């Protein structure tokens, strides 16, 4: 079994996890904006997300012989460690609910702001819990100023959303006759947004100027989740609910692997990060399948009804949904590996994933194009606080001396 122990290796895992976890939401957003039902997308995503956990468990978790304190994956499956297993599965439950809520929040609040608010709530609550669960192995004088930076970022993120929503409202109110007729002949080539359409699909919104009223209206016509006329409170509720769920899954995983509450019988080794991640992913997969199959027949937010047969026949976008699942699965696995080595509080630095998501939002979807100067200033300030926060949290990394049960 491969065990990551070095601080440098842990930080490398965090950076790679940061990229993966910041990219998969962009793929789900791309498919929703292209008109694919979120229930279909999430079912595909859930399958490969679980397969990633299986691959990690049977490779990194099964390499070579384990020891009594750190048995390999297959040996540990037969041990009496159910208290820790339940904590791991509880973490998977929280993550599944959070990711599912985020998928719908992306449509209402936008990719960037959703990620900012959920990540900031995760850090403020989850990192504080992990700090005490990890027996304070992280440097508090560095860690908590980093948490403060995330707290500032959540307020800036809310301000960005408010400012950008006002900008979009003004654009729609000033919608001119030329735009109503779809006349874009006066637009400059440099102002045209071309979708990075890796599947060959297209929409009329891909060929108009990003950020204009006609762009917003044609996007609304194409996308699966209709947002015009719906209260923004729906999106904010989903976003804050997702953030609360995300803030709990990492502490639950921490308890599963380190048994701070001494729930295991004497002599029973702690769950390794690979075994805990397997049970975590089983729970995440089961909850996602139950909820999304239910949503096929009883959809939310006025989405059209579907069926399992229709899902199986809907192959358009399946490759990208499955890629999103792999990215999320490996991203979570790398985060937990880094957290076990350097402290789960420091591993929460991957919650700076909005830096990556915002990049994809601007490049792929034309977010914040033609927004006001105030919106740009707030956006820049928000991203700056995230850069500071991720640097500070990584600087607070400690090194776990032992994972064995005393």
From TrEMBL:
Location of the protein in the cell: Membrane
Transmembrane regions: 6-30, 42-61, 81-98, 105-130, 142-161, 233-256, 276-298, 319-338, 344-365, 377-396
Keywords in alphabetical order: ATP-binding, Membrane, Nucleotide-binding, Transmembrane, Transmembrane helix, Transport
GO molecular function: ATP binding; transmembrane transporter activity
Predominant location category: membrane
Keyword Iron: no
The keyword Ribosomal protein is annotated on this UniProt entry: no
UniProt membrane topology term: Multi-pass membrane protein
Cellular-component GO terms for this entry: membrane
Family statement: Belongs to the plant ureide permease (TC 2.A.7.19) family.
Protein name: Ureide permease
The species this protein was found in: Glycine max
Gene name per UniProt: LOC100801814
